[in-house]
Amino acid sequence: MIPVPPRRVLVYTIPIALLLFVLPFVVAPYQVALLTYGLTFAIAALGFNLLLGYTGLLSFGHSAYFGMGAYGVAFIVKYFKISSMEAFILGGIVAATAVAALFGFVCVRYTRIFFGILTLALSQVIWSLAFKFFWVTGGTDGLRVPTPSLLGVGMAPGQDKMAFLAHRYYYYVLVIFLVGVAVMWVIVHSPFGKALQAIRDNETRAEFVGVQVRRYRYMAFLVSGVYTGLAGALWVPLNGLTTPDILHWTFSGKIVFFTVLGGFQTFFGPIIGAVVFNYLETYAVGHTVYWQLVLGVVLVFLVLALPGGIVGTAGRVLDRLRKAA
Amino acid sequence: MSLLSTKALVKYFGDTHAVDRVDFTVTQGELLALIGSNGAGKTTLVNLISGLLRADSGQIHFQGTDVTHQSIHERIAEGIARSFQLVNLFDQLSTLDNIALSIFSREGKTRRLFALADHDSAVQDEAMAVLRQFGLEGKARMVAGGLSQGERKLLDVAVAYALRPKLLFLDEPTSGVSTREKAPIMDIITSIVRSGRITAVIIEHDMDVVFKYSDRIVVMHEGAVLADGTPDQIRTNDQVAMTLLGTHV
Ligand SMILES: Nc1ncnc2c1ncn2[C@@H]1O[C@H](COP(=O)(O)OP(=O)(O)OP(=O)(O)O)[C@@H](O)[C@H]1O
Ligand SMILES: [Mg+2]
Description:
- The complex is a heterodimer.
- Chain A is an all-alpha fold.
- Chain A contains 14 helices and two strands.
- Chain A has one domain (about 5-245).
- Helix content of chain A is about 75%, strand content about 0%.
- Chain B is α/β, with parallel strands linked by helices.
- Chain B has helices spanning about 40-50, 70-80, 95-105, 120-135, 150-160, 180-195, 205-215, 230-235, 240-245; strands spanning about 1-15, 15-25, 30-35, 55-60, 65, 80, 165-170, 200-205, 215-220, 225-230.
- Chain B starts with a strand and ends with a helix.
- The mean pLDDT of chain B is about 90.
């Protein structure tokens, strides 16, 4: 990937960020809440794509880190009786990172399909543990997570939960999302990020310029886990409940789907993919019982017709228009 | 003074004695040519010394240190670098980034997550200077995958050179390019190696090139060293003429 100068990126991103800030004043709360879901998924996709797009590792087990982020929050509530969002985030990230540290240690020894299968298998272990230790995790009933206080300020008594989620919580997630995007942008453009891309392109040569391939893969794995865990922690207050569903490998499949939909060869692709997917799924579920079929058809179409995803294809179209002009 | 020496180095692949009890030395400051027919074991020897393959037995000493059991990373830190017979580049990175990565790595900067690579002007300037030396500065912003074969061969060498090694192995830097392009590529590479006072081992099939550029020649045949001497000594060595005649006329 040829780096895009930061100034050119800001030309696009600043107006979009401003638009996101005024959004709650122009659209219905339900729409804002829906976008909040999309933003949390986008953070997960961003973490996931550090591995896929930049390091060349396709994980089928990111449900584990997203789920641990969510369960980490639920444990904070259950065992510490705390409902502060900052404590939630801390708990979620710690839980997800611990699991990523363990799984990564095993997984980075493998690449390609072996890596994919191993991540899948390990994440399914976590999923089955969530059932087995039902007295800890609540089994299929899951664990409730109350609406948290944000920066020490709780929901006003009698305030509507939807209003809270669509306003204050939305801004809270938005700020974290924007910081997360900026930090990830720096990471992929850092010397470390270049080393990851070198590993993706040519593992042997990377080793021969002195990059310790496994160690760097492990670092990428950890960062990826932190992002996905953060996403899980931010998601759970929206949902109000965490169940083993989000630990299941089909949820990992969704994260793969977001990223392919938006375009894994671009920085912003996974973000767009996550937000679009969230709308697609919500409306498909609402309008047809065959929504999984709809998603399947979309995926097949994408892989066959638009391998660059939404952002990759849009970029190519823009380039062609610019050249034609 | 010998910079590198191997003692009774052995590597078998099944029944193939790819490297068979090889004693090979490289002297500080020389430009050594390693020649031999196809399958003689030249690449395998470089693979053993650079750490890509582990030896079955024997030792490798570099600057008095036993590096036989060191990792690739440790050997690079000691100052051993190599290029590849079949081009090995980071195809989706720009030509400039291919070089910059070597420099970041050499300076221990690849551990930096929170700094923009493009804003490290010292590294970017040095990378650009390396590209200029290799005549690739016009392609700096192009992805490496989009370069011509000749340019890719040069970039492959430049990536290794940018590590500022003490000993540089170049495995057939002109293989796969047209005859017309060979001489200019060798001119660029040898002048850089000479002016940088880098000790280099070049594997090459073209005997005209070998006699023209090297200080010393080591001939391998069926996994063993057949002859070792100055270009004049090798030129007049009957045994070398006999064995190489079959493959090079
Ligand atoms: N990884 C491997 N597995 C099995 N056999 C190998 C392997 N690498 C090399 N060989 C065999 O070892 C012998 C030496 O090969 P090597 O590549 O070292 O020769 P070379 O002198 O570099 O030849 P060329 O001039 O064709 O590059 C050959 O017979 C080759 O087939
Ligand atoms: Mg060879």
